[in-house]
Amino acid sequence: MIQAITWYNWYMKGIVLHGWGHNAEMWSSFIDKTAIHFSAIDLPGFGKQKLVSDSWGIPEYADWVVKEIEKHEDILLIGHSFGGRIAAEIASRKFSWLKGLVLSGAPCIYRPSIKTQIKIYLAQLGKRIFPNKFQDRFLSKDLMDARKAGLERIFRAVVGYNQTKQLKEIDIPTLLIWGENDSDAPVALAQEIQSYIRNSELHILEHCGHNVFLENPNLFSGYVNTFIKTI
Known about the structure:
CATH class of the largest domain: Alpha Beta
Distance between the termini: 21 Å
Strand order of the largest sheet: 2-1-3-4-5-6
Largest sheet: 6 strands, parallel
CATH superfamily of the largest domain: Alpha/Beta hydrolase fold, catalytic domain
Number of domains: 2
Protein name: AB hydrolase-1 domain-containing protein
Organism: Candidatus Roizmanbacteria bacterium CG10_big_fil_rev_8_21_14_0_10_39_6
InterPro entries: AB_hydrolase_1, AB_hydrolase_fold, AB_hydrolase_sf
Domain AB hydrolase-1: 15-217
Structural class: alpha/beta
Number of helices: 11
């Protein structure tokens, strides 16, 4: 692990919020490459953290994270995918202790594809016409997995939550790191998110998909370490 302490990082602590279906341990290799002390936390319902409520959405998860980290000062928050949504929600609340934000693959703006819109239409139509078992054929794999894990209500609340208004409230230094082949949160979405966050920069990693921190950890951590110097 990097132990060097410099003028720009001796006072700062980093917190990582993982994506949907992930856990804190998946970020261990990234943490070993960073210039400040980082820690990743399991979100309720994932990893080792027990589910608090099956009706939570992004605001409730943000409330929980704030209670976990607000005792610290000078925080750099990294959020991937689902965790990025939560991180953006927290950043929009303008806490004095939050000094920087890193988002990766975070679908903060609800922009369902044509394919997804068709699935939604068929699912709604199926509710009126077909029996329950047949309706399941129109559901996505992610939703079916969430149902099996007891997280269906949370998944539905998270997916449809549009954070356009919140993004416009973020005024801290923000770094966006995206994979050029991200199908869950396309690059066009990242570019729109950047247009809403005033003090932000976007880096697109070639040949990477949704999990850029795993696909190219060296470049990902490199961008983060460079970003830390500017905060």
